[in-house]
Automatic annotation (TrEMBL):
<keyword id="KW-0560">Oxidoreductase</keyword>
<comment type="similarity">
    <text>Belongs to the short-chain dehydrogenases/reductases (SDR) family.</text>
</comment>
<dbReference type="InterPro" id="IPR051122">
    <property type="entry name" value="SDR_DHRS6-like"/>
</dbReference>
<dbReference type="InterPro" id="IPR036291">
    <property type="entry name" value="NAD(P)-bd_dom_sf"/>
</dbReference>
<dbReference type="InterPro" id="IPR057571">
    <property type="entry name" value="SDR_PhqE-like"/>
</dbReference>
<dbReference type="InterPro" id="IPR002347">
    <property type="entry name" value="SDR_fam"/>
</dbReference>
<dbReference type="Pfam" id="PF23441">
    <property type="entry name" value="SDR"/>
</dbReference>
<protein>
    <recommendedName>
        <fullName>NAD(P)-binding protein</fullName>
    </recommendedName>
</protein>
<keyword id="KW-0521">NADP</keyword>
<dbReference type="GO" id="GO:0016491">
    <property type="term" value="F:oxidoreductase activity"/>
</dbReference>
Length: 248
């Protein structure tokens, strides 16, 4: 029987976008916490490589991977097929969550949804109106969902600048200059790695007393959106680009 602080032990965790960056580290941390993990990405090659890395690092862990591309117009049918593949772990993408999400989440505070947003919600950048509107909307969405889906918990992480593959398009010198500029501005004088930021998601999955909150990273200067859902065994944890849920 899991100890009282091993809250993810024997749980099922699904990470959409789990082949790299923060999502990959959430998968790692979940495995270390004793959960069974399924990762998904739009690229079969990235999924295969990520699963092999996880299996190599955690040979006793339960990990699998599937392809699911949420950018296609066939997203709903693709997700339905993905759910059938994933078996006992349920994944809710935006449209499907609105239809059937509340039927499958466990009805209790051990189940949770964690959105990911960015600082542009609070400190808009010129020319970022669409991203800013979406990021800010996630704050209200999470608070509204926390009320509508209670006792299921809903929170938001705003991680800020994180050293992930997201910056891979920059030259090394340019990337170093960006990180240096961030470090000079933030209180921690530090740009975190994804393995550090992953701890915020684990905390929000574990702490059944937290809902309707926004967890800000001190190095918060850049905005992205993902989602993590967590629940009891045979339910889920997941990360994916955006979320809309209605009970019913």
């Amino acid at each position: 029987m899991p100890g009282k602080y091993q809250k993810l032990m024997e749980k099922d965790v699904l990470v959409i976008g789990g082949s790299s960056g923060i999502g990959y580290c959430v998968a790692e941390a979940s495995l270390e916490s004793g959960a069974s993990v399924i990762i998904s990405s739009s690229s079969a090659n990235r999924v295969t490589k990520a699963v092999k890395r996880l299996q190599s690092s955690y040979p006793d862990g339960k990990v699998a991977g599937y392809v699911c591309d949420l950018s296609k117009p066939t997203v709903e049918s693709d997700i339905e097929n993905f759910i059938k593949q994933a078996g006992q772990v349920w994944f809710f993408a935006p449209l499907l969550v609105a239809k059937v999400g509340s039927r499958y989440l466990s009805a209790g505070p051990q189940a949770s949804i964690t959105l990911t947003t960015g600082v542009t919600a609070d400190k808009p950048y010129e020319g970022w109106i669409v991203v800013t509107s979406f990021a800010a909307g996630l704050h209200g969405m999470a608070r509204g969902l926390a009320v509508d889906l209670a006792p299921v918990r809903v929170n938001v992480v705003s991680p800020g600048a994180v050293k992930t593959e997201l910056w891979g398009g920059m030259e090394e010198e340019e990337r170093a200059a960006v990180f240096k500029a961030v470090e000079e501005k933030v209180l921690t004088k530090h740009v975190a790695g994804p393995e550090e930021v992953a701890e915020s998601y684990l905390w929000l999955m574990k702490d059944s007393n937290v809902t309707g909150t926004v967890e800000f990273g001190l190095a918060n200067v850049f905005g992205v959106t993902n989602t993590i859902l967590s629940s009891n065994p045979n339910s889920l944890s997941a990360t994916f680009p955006s979320l809309s849920i209605k009970p019913g």
